[in-house]
Design brief:
globular, 4 helices
Length: 222
């Protein structure tokens, strides 16, 4: 199956969640949200491993796993290792999705507005979530880890892509352990994050992608 633009939408969303700090919330959540804000506001980079579970209406489920790197401003590398190798790279201007099994690279434009309106910016402290989201207790999804605080973030304005984002925070360190993105189509992408390290030195070359010779290149203009 060829890689579609779904991955680009998900990772733009995920990047915003992992790079933004500061949320409008009820008093019960103030301590957790303030702790998360302090934790990630000074982060320039974040790296770790992930497991992604995608669920679509009709009982369709897909599980994948790999490692990721994020760096301000807008640099991303998501390297899938199982069950198939796949690579997502964003250099701040474009994002590249490479599926070796398909011998295909899909290229999407990447603008500051894309990053500003997506929910994966919490890990590096960017964006304005206080203005763009409201927070409430998460009741649909049970915690995946012990001693965590699950919060649901609902966009104040309709962004046309996702209905809400759920963050599961460590109750002591306020690290983000899990991110759930519910698309308006009803599909859900869940990311479980492990071994996350902040402010680790990274090579900018890891965020540049040169398509291998002989692969099909599909350029999406948006």
């Amino acid at each position: 199956m060829k890689v579609s633009c779904f991955l680009s939408r998900i990772f733009l969303s995920l990047f915003a969640v992992l790079l933004t700090a500061g949320i409008s919330a009820a008093a019960d959540f103030d301590e957790a949200l303030s702790g998360m804000e302090r934790r990630y506001a000074a982060a320039d980079t974040a790296a770790g491993s992930f497991k992604q579970v995608y669920r679509a209406p009709g009982g369709i489920t897909q599980e994948e796993a790999g490692v990721f790197q994020l760096k301000r401003p807008g640099l991303m590398r998501w390297e899938y290792r199982t069950p198939e190798k796949k690579l997502f790279v964003a250099d701040g201007k474009e994002c590249f999705i490479y599926a070796p099994v398909d011998r295909q690279v899909t290229i999407h434009p990447l603008t500051p507005a894309d990053l500003a309106r997506t929910p994966f910016a919490f890990l590096l402290g960017g964006g304005n979530v206080r203005r763009d989201y409201s927070a409430s207790a998460e009741t649909e999804f049970k915690p995946a880890f012990p001693d965590t605080i699950p919060l649901r973030l609902t966009p104040v304005h309709d962004n046309g892509e996702y209905a809400f984002v759920t963050l599961e925070l460590d109750a002591k360190t306020f690290n983000i352990r899990r991110v759930i993105i519910r698309e308006r189509s009803g599909s859900t992408s869940e990311f479980l994050l492990n071994d996350v390290v902040l402010n680790q030195k990274m090579n900018d070359g890891d965020f540049r992608f040169r398509p291998p010779r002989g692969v099909e290149i599909v350029r999406i203009q948006e």
